[in-house]
Design brief:
26% strand; alpha+beta
């Protein structure tokens, strides 16, 4: 399994306009129409990168552009419908200045096509403006378990968390819940309070039980933008690896070399245009 992440400065999106115009011609007509409906260019650019990531992966596997096909399940989860050997399961996420794709293939991919049970989510460590952390947690209170609320807002006499740790814990909890439901391929409506992530102990429970056959991996990203600011993100990948395998409900930290590959948006789009434009585009 790997995660490919693309970073971009949302305040300097105009610098990607030429590459965007070239890149949008490399996706199918339905995707082009969808991307051009966005009112804000940043949404179009993120959407384009999310569509190019699996195409670049397929191209590197020797699949010509004209043979690339993508479909969706009834719940709306995208999957590769091109006949690829070995098969590939993937999932896309984006938030602010990050677009990421998690994928697995071959013997590492549990054979449950077409969409496969793999999901990823990433979020910026940032509170909405004019919001306090206790107020922010209260908004999502009914989607958190009692243990999660206690870990986010420790009762006295326990010392309060640092501002950074508050955000880190909350968004790890949230991205794991999102990644798990995305892996299941479910639409809206899943009760997030059924999923519990005990961040201090890195343990996951679903309906109070350790989920059998699941693997959870957390990771962190930093995105340097203008004015010497650095955005911090956390993310989680969830994937089903088979009964009797998995991580026993524990959440692993991504430490394997090469597991997480990060590229700047300009670099990625330039390479994608070069790699994909050599084929006939339908």
């Amino acid at each position: 399994m790997e995660v490919w992440a693309v970073t971009l400065d949302t305040a300097a999106i105009c610098e990607l306009e030429e590459l965007y115009q070239k890149g949008v011609l490399l996706v199918d007509e339905a995707s082009q129409t969808h991307l051009r409906k966005y009112h804000h260019r940043i949404d179009s650019v993120r959407g384009l990168i999310g569509r190019l990531l699996p195409r670049v992966l397929l191209k590197q596997r020797g699949i010509p552009v004209e043979s690339m096909r993508f479909s969706k399940t009834r719940a709306g989860k995208p999957y590769i419908s091109t006949d690829v050997g070995p098969p590939i399961g993937y999932n896309i996420t984006h938030d602010n200045g990050i677009v990421a794709m998690a994928y697995s293939s071959g013997s590492a991919l549990y054979p449950d096509p077409p969409a496969y049970r793999i999901g990823v989510d990433v979020m910026l460590l940032q509170l909405p403006r004019r919001d306090t952390f206790p107020g922010f947690v209260e908004v999502f209170s009914d989607q958190l378990t009692a243990l999660e609320r206690k870990n986010l807002l420790p009762p006295a006499p326990a010392p309060p968390l640092s501002k950074h740790e508050e955000l880190r814990r909350f968004f790890l909890i949230w991205t794991l819940k999102e990644a798990y439901t995305k892996a299941l391929g479910l639409g809206l409506g899943f009760d997030f309070s059924r999923i519990e992530y005990d961040v201090p102990n890195d343990v996951v429970r679903i309906d109070g039980q350790v989920p059998r056959g699941w693997e959870f991996t957390r990771f962190e990203l930093r995105n340097a933008v203008k004015d010497e600011r650095v955005e911090e993100y956390v993310g989680v990948v969830a994937r089903f690896v088979g009964e009797g395998v998995g991580s026993g409900g524990s959440v692993q930290s991504a430490v394997a070399p090469g597991w997480l590959k990060v590229r700047d948006a300009k670099e990625f789009l330039s390479a994608a245009v070069k790699e994909l434009s050599g084929d006939t585009i339908e």
